[in-house]
UniProtKB/TrEMBL annotation, chains A, B:
PANTHER family: HYDROPEROXIDE REDUCTASE
Pfam families named in the record: OsmC
InterPro entries: KH_dom-like_a/b, OsmC/Ohr_fam, OsmC/Ohr_hydroprdx_reductase, OsmC/Ohrsf
Protein name as annotated: OsmC family protein
Domain of life: Bacteria
UniProt-listed Gene3D superfamilies: 3.30.300.20
Length: 181, 181
């Protein structure tokens, strides 16, 4: 068997799956972000700490993001629009899944690119109650070059979708509670 | 009446709402992201172009994001985890809404901070079919300092939630189609 190297430590993930089966409390993660309003619809958001494996964890560095609205919304465009961050998460989650599944199946990847498009009728957020606020639908298109048949590549993408955290979060409802301290 | 300045051009948004009522096709936006696999579960995602008001539009600059998994997932932690981007979008969307609604209601904001926490049982993404892949639930806590009563501040947050694109996208299902070109 040819050695495949996509850079994913599949054995560690299989070991984690086995370990967490007997320690479900360690599998409870809490991801966190903190935001600070700057001015107008511009805010900065920071991500570094999270909880998992029964302890506080930290990313090796803090990530800071700017979110704003574009000039066509009469804003200053200091960063991408909040709803665009969902597309960033979806693209990266599905791509990580493709790499992991390919590694597990012994398929060498050469390149994986995707385009994500979210269709959005902005009359909802502007106050029209007959139009939903979020996306009407989202389309993801992958371009993948790998040592595999078209059918094998399609199966990689299908399996990635089946185990994608972000795909699930967007296609199924999640309870979100908002409170004022 | 005191002049309130939160930096949101509410009149432009009200004008847009009126204009788009008679031109629904101009209200159809398509937001886009493109991703490129780097190595392992690391990818880079770019956002700049979008479609809206019947034409191609562009952010004033391109935004580039790194997504990866942390060291506890046996990865290199070159960026935040895909599912964390959903929290970035949620925090910034609700914050933009608070600022817009406050401006419209004549409430001066001094500071708006929030913490967003997403609870996630990672056994799902590791392959346990009895556990969902996405978040179990998400909690958002706002700390707001404004020239307003506690009740008025709570009403700001409630109205923001009611018109938030990302809140809707996370609490209600969206059709996501994934294809291989």
């Amino acid at each position: 068997m040819t050695t495949v190297e996509n850079g994913v430590n599949v054995q560690a993930l299989l070991d984690a799956r086995a370990a967490l089966k007997d320690a479900p409390e360690a599998a409870q993660f809490t991801w966190r972000a903190t935001s600070k309003w700057e001015k107008g619809v511009h805010s900065t958001i920071r991500v570094q700490q999270f909880h998992g494996l029964g302890a506080e964890q930290t990313h090796k560095s803090e990530s800071v993001f700017d979110a704003d609205h574009p000039a066509v919304f009469a804003a200053e465009d200091n960063g991408i629009t909040p709803i665009e961050f969902l597309l960033v998460g979806l693209a990266s989650c599905l791509t990580a899944g493709v790499a992991s599944v390919a590694q597990n199946r012994g398929i060498q990847l050469r390149s994986v690119e995707s385009t994500v498009e979210g269709n959005h009728d902005i009359r909802g957020i502007l106050g029209d109650s007959d139009v939903r606020n979020g996306y009407n639908d989202i389309k993801v298109t992958f371009h993948i070059d790998a040592d595999a048949t078209k059918q094998e590549i399609e199966a990689l993408v299908a399996q990635s979708q089946k185990r994608s955290a972000v795909f699930d979060a967007l296609t199924n409802p999640t309870d979100v509670t908002v409170t004022v301290a």
